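User: quick one - fold this with NAI bound?
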Amino acid sequence: MSDSTNSELGSSGVPESTMKRLEGRKALVTGASRGIGREIAIAFAREGADVVINYRSSDEDAEVLARTVEDLGDRAWVYSADVSDIDQVGEMKRSVEKYMGPIDILVNNAGINRDTLFSKMDEEAWKEVFSVNMNGVFNCTKTFLDHLEESDHSRIINITSIVGQIGNIGQANYAASKAGIIGFTKSLAKELARKNINVNAISPGFIETDMLSGVPDKVREKIVAQIPMRRFGRPEEVAKSVVFLASNDADYITGHVLNVNGGMYL
Ligand code: NAI
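Assistant: Sure. Structure tokens for the protein plus NAI:
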């Protein structure tokens, strides 16, 4: 066998082209223009999935990501919609149907934080976080549910947070919204299991993205000291876990909260 033939084989001897875990799947990733969502979109494309890239405002970042997905040989559809607005999500669905067809993987990733001590937290900071982090999950799941019901291997993957599990000073709004996502995930997992829709959550610890960039150095040092692995996570490490839950390897897993946190919460 020549070297060139060998290089096309994976470690198991199976041709690389047949080893992609999400071949033929269509995924919608919300908040995908940067950070964790961007890495999920790329990881999905590497595994052969077509990807709908939802974002709110960063047109250029979303377009660049679409080219990356296409360079990997998959289709990309870019759509700007505020997930907190169910009408915009409905418009996105019509556009997705027209250009891509029904999705079978939904990743509710879009999220925001408006951190401040509860004594200083106004109603706006509370409502804003809930409108994106919780209502956004409701809006997208409700709107795309009929797509997911069409396929016999559908997935809903919700991105929650370690903060929703252990709480955090200055994040009562964010922590409450992320804890809500866990209850939603478990309830929906029970409701939708009969329809072959697996519903799981990924709970990242502290991950190097824009969300963390505003944290002062001293606070960052204190956080790292609490992480047994002594480092922040990388967005691509979260994305790999999302691929696992989206793949057939996770066929019998539903209602699970998968911690990706370097051992910070067990
Ligand atoms: P990021 O701030 O880098 O990216 C968030 C993405 O969501 C952006 O693309 C943004 O445009 C989008 N987005 C925000 N509001 C939106 C809306 N109304 N409609 C549509 N898109 C919207 O954040 P990061 O770090 O990538 O976070 C992704 C998810 O992971 C979020 O749900 C976040 O809560 C969660 N997470 C992040 C952690 C971290 O340490 N970075 C830790 C645990 C969870």
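One thing worth noting: DSSP finds eleven helices and seven strands in the chain.
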